[in-house]
Amino acid sequence: MERLTNHFFRLCSIVAIVIVCGCSAGKKKIFAPQEVATGWADLSIYITKNTPSNSPTYASRCFGYIGLTMYESVVNGYPSYHSMAGQLNGLEALPIPETGLEYDWLIALNAGQASIIKRIYNQTSDENKSKVDSLEALFFEQISDQVDSEVADRSVMYGKSVADAIFEWSTTDGGHRGYLKNFDKNLKLPTGEGRWEPPLYAQSISHYPLHPHWGDNRTFVAKNSLIPTPELIPHDTTPGSPYYTQFIEVYEKDKALTQEEKEAALWWGDDPADTFTPPGHSYYIATAVIKAKNPELIKCAETYAKMGIAVADAFIECWKWKYEHVSERPSSFLNHHVEPGWVSFWPDPPFPAFPSGHATNAGTAATILIYQFGERFSFTDSSHVGRKRDEVRNVDFKPRRFDSFWEVAEETANSRFYGGIHSHYDNEVGLTEGARIAENVNALIWKNE
User: Fold this and answer.
1) Which domains does the chain have, with CATH numbers?
2) How many CB atoms sit inside 10 A of residue 292's CB?
3) pLDDT digits (tens, 9 = 90+) for 223-247
4) How far does CA 42 lie from the centroid of its chain?
5) What phi and psi, each to the nearest 5 degrees, are found at residue 10?
């Protein structure tokens, strides 16, 4: 595990100060409701990064259930907001508060987050589970200080009952404990011209494709499962054809990469072996926005629920389309038709190309944040600052400045082109379809207008 000063923990987050470093005896910090929400988000991101056998697919699913639990643990305290029970795919009902009894919704949120994180990341270390317990105890001690003990106990039980119900629903989605079946060694994919093949220069030691059945999982939003499969450019190896040209563009860019483009390629790589994964990066950005905007608690929870649900559905749909097309990476085409032995700047991930998963996730995340906070938002992404310099590629991890959410999405998508693992078309379709997935999430009835 990297030191506290690295990555997103360079920020003085609650989790970094209290859970990782500890705090001085006798000093009691008073946490605002928003800090409780972002504190749990920080810890969710940390556990995602520091749990073995993780993947972008599985991590996206975890954020879906973690974010939804945060929202559902508090939504009944806000009369103008609506539960997702009866709106999400197969989620018919959730526990509801007893009429006439008092609840403390922040205590319920605290208990619900602790419960869902430990259950959804059951495979994480005992050390990480202890961090969850410590954060829950820290927040509870402060919040319950001014709350009647019966109300506090009732609120804890309610938050945990919501988490338990959501977890039980999660076990039926097709992705339960998906980290135990990352690769299907018995799968026979179609082969031949234009088809994906295991790369020699790979991001993973496995030459089997990652989660080939992930697209069969239940989406959170039923409408997302009905989105038509996007069309692939027809296969044609004739020089000058659209299919040929998309890969020549990758080839030419690889020979002319600027230092800034190399930095972008590595920044957005978000390799699950070293980072919090692409969906974790989206959750991180949502957290940065919430810390800057400081909205009321329900909007914090709504944002995390929307982000989690949307990126989870984005990976289900993207993976469904990937394994319907089983399309080749630029490395395969260029090695067979342009330059034998060609190697991409960034190693190939272990799954088919079209459409780009990074772009799909990025288009989804940006669309959620634009809906929640507006298009324009200036911020610096420091999530990877402190990572060890990549000596092989001559790249340092420097902060990246953005002035809009869609600018983040476009750079994320372009980074895969700079890395030599996706064509522009892969990215363009990913951004478009990702936005469509998010729009279906935004269209749910979240609150009275």
Assistant:
1) 7-170 (1.10.606.20), 183-442 (1.10.606.20)
2) 12
3) 999 999 999 999 999 999 999 999 9
4) 13
5) -65, -30
